[in-house]
Q: What sequence folds into this?
């Protein structure tokens, strides 16, 4: 009998200790201090990425609260209030979701020209960038173009009995510098947090263009031009090694078009192509702005990164 | 014989222990969830749009128009039913109707002028004829529904923090297409020896000036300067039937209604919008 009573006491003691431990468990989980130093745990594996939107951290918020609404504040501060949730008094500040420093970015892209109503170019190429810091990069870009004449170009002949003077783009390569002035995050339906950044680019390179002769069957010539470009874009961070970007770039260069008097010289109605080129360089040189939009996928090497600051 | 009841008691105590511990262990497993389960992803969120009006004005510019660009004054009034859905009325009035595109300039320079001393142009229209046929956006007025799935904040140079949102819009309204002048087709004599009855007339224009229905779709963003003011960027695609040149398109050597087709007309605008009431709610 004694053993039975003793056994029951042990069981009851175990149960009560177990319940006390359970009651403490959430506090341990939420309040466990982070050790300084490296931490390879990705933010996505540490539970839901919940964060408070106001009044946290040393941020200088342009639209920060001067006085929080009293009713809301009262609700939160009332620890035993009706409808109080378990997460009400837990503050979570997710870390920056993506680090780029000392990583390579390989970014294949596809693009399209935006500002020429007569000829459209599709671009296929890639960027190779190295991030010196988290906001500064240096890289190479290269792209090949495929042309498409627009409906407006075909109507010029029908409506005005004219043939437009056009050049097509062949390829382009450049050295480019990147800068990230802004880093943001947004809530998607208040269910997921997506991190993104704003990118600027400045580059210098060369392209090759080729004239599209106005008269069918005429020989064409090519131009090698020095090209400067400016870019602005938005990059979404998808995985530790994967990003998606939309970028706009403005390429500025001086191009040479087929000169207007190619067949009007009575002394030489069919001049040699080298003469056509030199005459065109003299009389038909023009500054060109080529605005393009690109979609790209960024693949990062090494594919993971390590946080070096405390959480 | 004495050991049997003792063994029975041990078994009974063990069963009792299991019966008590097992349900509480199962319950404990259930309760061992993250305290953040079911928490909204952003708490104490500033609901900058919910049940608020916004009103403002700005400027818009057309992108990729064939003959005339449009510089528009763009007043906008909106009401946000929730933080993520709203309706808006947007207008645009072209304040610079004479703004030619570079293609129009090139075309104009290439076309002949009607000069009595020069050889007559038998096929190409004269500059004035070509210009008379071209239309441009006069004004546009649309109602639109806006869906705002993305909202958050951004750090500029790691020191300035501001709120923003992205949205998509869909709607319809009226677009007015205007032309500056009208001109009759010019008829010319091929050469001095031909009689007046052998005149060659250029193909006529049919200037398309009307107010008609337009669909619109696009994207937009607010960059908040405070709780009550925001910069509002919008990219609209106005989709309507048009023949911007006013000339033959289908090759039947006349310009008429059959030459009109659906066109995409992009307008980018930047507004300064003020929100009412001037304070915003904060979520739990």
A:
């Amino acid at each position: 009998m004694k053993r039975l009573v003793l056994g029951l006491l042990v069981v009851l003691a175990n149960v009560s200790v177990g319940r006390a431990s359970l009651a403490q468990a959430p506090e341990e989980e939420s309040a466990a201090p982070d050790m300084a130093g490296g931490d390879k745990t990705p933010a996505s594996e540490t539970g839901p990425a919940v964060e408070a939107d106001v009044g946290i951290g040393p941020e200088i918020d342009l639209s920060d609260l001067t006085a929080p609404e009293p009713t809301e504040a009262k609700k939160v501060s009332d620890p035993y209030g009706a409808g109080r949730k378990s997460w009400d008094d837990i503050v979570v500040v997710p870390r920056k979701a993506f680090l780029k420093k000392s990583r390579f970015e390989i970014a294949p892209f596809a693009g399209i020209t935006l500002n020429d109503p007569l000829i459209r170019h599709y671009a296929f190429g890639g960027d190779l960038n190295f991030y010196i810091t988290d906001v500064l990069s240096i890289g190479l870009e290269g792209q090949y173009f495929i042309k498409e004449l627009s409906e407006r170009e075909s109507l010029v002949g029908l409506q005005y009995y004219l043939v437009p003077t056009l050049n097509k783009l062949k390829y382009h390569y450049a050295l480019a510098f990147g800068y990230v002035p802004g880093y943001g995050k947004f809530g998607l339906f208040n269910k997921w947090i997506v991190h993104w950044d704003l990118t600027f680019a400045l580059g210098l390179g060369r392209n090759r263009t080729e004239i599209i002769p106005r008269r069918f069957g005429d020989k064409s010539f090519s131009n090698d031009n020095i090209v400067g470009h400016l870019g602005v874009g938005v990059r979404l961070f998808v995985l530790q090694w994967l990003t998606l970007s939309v970028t706009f770039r403005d390429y500025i260069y001086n191009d040479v078009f087929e000169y207007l008097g190619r067949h009007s010289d009575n002394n030489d109605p069919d001049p040699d192509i080298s003469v056509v080129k030199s005459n065109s360089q003299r009389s038909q040189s023009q500054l060109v702005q080529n605005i393009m939009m690109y979609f790209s996928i960024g693949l990062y090497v090494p594919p993971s990164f390590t946080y070096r600051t405390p959480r | 014989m004495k050991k049997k009841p003792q063994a029975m008691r041990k078994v009974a105590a063990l069963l009792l222990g299991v019966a008590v511990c097992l349900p509480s262990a199962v319950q404990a497993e259930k309760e061992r969830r993250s305290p953040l389960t079911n928490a909204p992803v952003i708490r104490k969120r500033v609901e900058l749009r919910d049940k608020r009006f916004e009103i403002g004005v700005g400027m818009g510019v057309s992108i990729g128009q064939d003959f005339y660009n449009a510089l528009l004054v763009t007043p906008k009034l909106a009401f946000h039913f929730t933080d993520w859905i709203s309706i808006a009325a947007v207008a645009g009035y072209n304040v610079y109707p004479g703004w030619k595109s570079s293609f129009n300039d090139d075309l104009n320079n290439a076309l002949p002028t009607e000069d009595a001393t020069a050889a007559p142009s038998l096929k190409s229209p004269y500059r004035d004829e070509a210009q008379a046929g071209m239309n441009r956006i006069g004004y546009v007025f649309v109602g639109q529904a806006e869906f705002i799935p993305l909202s958050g904040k951004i750090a500029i140079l790691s020191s300035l923090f501001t709120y923003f949102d992205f949205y998509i819009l869909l709607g319809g309204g009226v677009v007015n297409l205007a032309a500056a002048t009208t001109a009759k087709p010019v008829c010319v004599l091929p050469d001095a020896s031909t009689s007046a009855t052998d005149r060659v007339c250029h193909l006529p224009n049919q200037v398309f000036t009307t107010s008609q229905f337009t669909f619109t779709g696009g994207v937009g963003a607010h960059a908040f300067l405070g709780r009550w003011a925001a910069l509002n960027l919008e990219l609209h695609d106005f989709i309507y039937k048009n023949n911007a040149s006013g000339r033959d398109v289908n090759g039947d050597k006349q310009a008429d209604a059959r030459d009109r087709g659906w066109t995409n007309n992009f307008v980018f605008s930047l507004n300064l919008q003020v929100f009412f009431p001037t304070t915003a709610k904060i979520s739990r």
Remarks:
- Chain B touches chain A through 75 residues (CB under 8 Å).
